[in-house]
Each structure stands twice: as structure tokens, then as C-alpha cells.
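Memo to structure team: turn this sequence into C-alpha cells by end of day. - J.P.
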Amino acid sequence: MRQLVSLPAMWCFLRSRVIRLSLLAAALAASATSAQAVPVPEIPHGSEVPEFVGAPATANPITGIPPIPQHPYLAPNGDSGVHNDGWMSDTYTRPGPLGHTPQTNSVLLGNLCISAAFDRAGRIVASCLGLDPSLYLIDPATMTVLGKHPLEGRSASDVLQPGAALDTGGGVYFYLDNEDRAVVGTNTGHIQVFAQTAAADGFVLERDYDLSGVLRPEEALNSALPDSNGRIWFVGETNGLVGTLDPDTGAVQATRLGEGAENEIANSFAVGADGDVYIATNRQLVRFDAGPEGEPQITWQATYANSGQHKPGQINDGTGTTPTILPNGYVAITDNADPMNVVVYRTAPDAAERQVCSVPVFEPGRSGTENSLIGAGRSIIVENNYGYVPRDALLGAPSAPGFARVDIDDDGNGCHLVWTNSVEGAPSVVSKLSLATGLIYTYTKGTQISGPWYWTALDYRTGETVWKQLAGTGPAFGNHYTGIVLGPDGAAYLGTTGGLLSLRDGS
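Reply from structure team:
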């Protein structure tokens, strides 16, 4: 079910002043918790915008992929956060939609839910920023808000601040731990742990770790994750800030890779099964391990190729990827060369040769990404975000198209390009792979003036487009770096500037 509004009305909505945004946020909160959720509004479109393209798929499971170890301090794989697990694989063992009589639904929130997870009952836990920055608990079947809790250090006026579109701190990332608690790094220098209320109608603050005594005034938290021993690691964008928190004692230790613009950490990080932690700056990939007192220690670091360009669609002039751990001792990122390369490294501390391969993807002058790679066994899927500019995307302008798959060679001494899809363009979404269906789930942009956005499924084996289902038209359906998540119910979910969308197969 969709609600249509005119384009001028939508722009009036987007340009409202802070006081009007706050009033609208209150109204949205009231409607979202009512018996029937208000859908995300779209602008009218004509017959030039098809509802469905392609044909429904038949599940073609991907076999022979080694399972990702279950992190002892995270929620089950697939449920713990925007990148699914500690390895940041963006891969599910469970199915997503096949495109059979697709059913779309949405809830208008006035917030952008960038990161989402699933609790033990299958409810959505999402961190949403915008008019009413909050941690949300949402019923996936009805798309209604069950409860929420404000995010400390965030307000409606944040959306009007310079650089707000590229701010990755203060709740952009969070994780769900092994006790179903949401752990969030705040803009005030705290790591907060939220448990659900007994009635599952909201959250209560269970623990609050104050890191302000260690952080400098200009340092804000980007992301936090536990290592395999339960120690919580955190990073900040400036000064190459890397720190550890002992959750039992509250002891905090931090190190800095260096001051200046060449030591930025704009994304999250990956945690391995042996206490290993992989963090990418805008110049290097660094493996950390905890020292004797729990302090962050560099095990190895590798400088990747860099054109020096801050490419359109990227947050800074470095890799746009959160590192992705792969089986058999590998970790992968993209570099910032021109054209961009998928780069794979050996994780072992004593590896004689650190780099396995560097494979160019997409066209020179039109290649870049700001999203984590998908990792499945020896296979790596990368998308092209070059040219994504939020304002232009809202007005209907597409970014450079492109998806590619790169596989590590069987002997582990190189990599090769398997396929490239040069047709579909995903401006900024975190795409996902289902091993159960053999489909890559992404979110693509049409070129029509109405600005249609499509749920899109690609074939993992060939890269070809299988089907596309219209999500909606207009600015409220732009996603701005949010991640698709596949729920335990087989549906797909995605945050947009207007709220939260869902897609499921019909009966």
C-alpha cells in the first residue's frame, strides 16, 4: 500500500525548519505506534515506471561455503548488525524473497535507519537518525513501532549541520550482543548498552561506559564491537583513534595512529575468531590484537594504493569498505586507486607475503565504493557507488553503475574477475547475499524523472539481473548508505530517508 504526495509537497517537507521537523517527528511517532503504520509517501508516476521487471527466481543454493564461526559475544550470525556478523560478511545462510507476487510495505518514521538487527523473537532493532534520532523496536509483520529510546547526543537539528550527510558517528553503527542487548557508541563519548523492557515496548539503559576521559574534544565514536574474548573495541574518525574497553571493570585504553587527514577511520571494522581485529584507515589496513594489559597493539599494517581523490560517493579519500574476513586466513577491502581494486591480504601475523592480489574493477574515472564487500568463501562481491551525491540522487540523477565478483584462486596465490554487471546502479546501499537462494539483494535507481527505486536481485553465479520490484518513487525512497537486512521471516528490509521498507513474497 502506498501513499502519494506531490513533488512540491515533498520538497516542502524536506526543507522545513527545525521546529517544524520536531513537530512532524512527534506526529510520526504517534502514528507509527498506532494500530496501522502510516506508509512512506511517494510522488505519482506513470506507465514509464514498471512495477516489476524480470521473472521470479527458483532458489539455487550456494553450497561448499565454509560456515562463518559464531562470535561468542554477538547475536546469531545474520542478526547482530548491519554487516551480519563479526566477519562483516554481508552474507546470509537463510533465504530472502524470490520475487513471487512481491508484497511491499513501509512505515513512515522521518528517520533514516542505517543499521538494523533482529532480536531472538524476530523483531527489528534499528538505529535511526533524522527528525527523532532513536533506537527503535519494530514489529516486522505489521511494520509498527513497538518502542524506542532517544540516542544520546543526537537531535533533529543534526540534519541541517554541515557535513551531516557524511557523519558516521553517534549511532550510525551499533551491534546486538549475545544477550539481545543493543550496544551503541554515542556522540557524547559513551558506549551505552540497552536491554529491552519486559513488555518488549522499548529499551532501558543497562550499562553506560563513559570514555570522555580518554577521548579528545574533537574525537567522536564511529563504531564499537567485541573481540572474541569479550573485550569491546572502538574507533573514532579522527586521529586514527583505536581503543579497548573492559566491560567488567570499565577500564579504557586507547592509541592513535597519527593526527591529520591521513589517519581517518570512516567505517566500522571486523573481528576474527582469535582476538584479531581489522581496521581500515584512509591509507592503510591494520591488524590489531590486544596486548598484555588489553591495550590495542598493531600486529601488522599494509598501505594500499590510493589515487588521492575524494571520489563522489565516498566519505573520504580512502577505502570505502569495512574490512571483510574470509575463510582460510584472508581479509579483503577495496583500495582508492583509479580504477579501484579489490585487494586481498593474508591475515597471519607471520605471512611471508602479505598481499594476495589486487584486481581492478569498473571503469577508470568512474569507480569507487563506500560499502563493505560481500564475502562468501573465496568469492567477493563489490558494488560501484561512484558519483553518488545525496542531493542529486534525490532529484533523480543516477550514479555510475556496476557490480563485480572477484574470486581468490584455488591455490590462494592470486585472484581473478569472475563477472561484471555494468547495467545496474546501486548508489549507496549495503547489498546482501543469500546462500539459500543464490541471489544478491540490492537497491537500484531508475533514470526516470520520477526517481523510481527498485528492490533488485542479481544472480550470484552470473551477475545477471533476475528481477526488480518497484519500492517507490521520489526522495523519501532514497536510502543513503543504509543496509538491506534479510529477516528470519524471509522478508527483506531497508531504511530510507522516509522510514523503513519491507519486501516479501506473496502467498
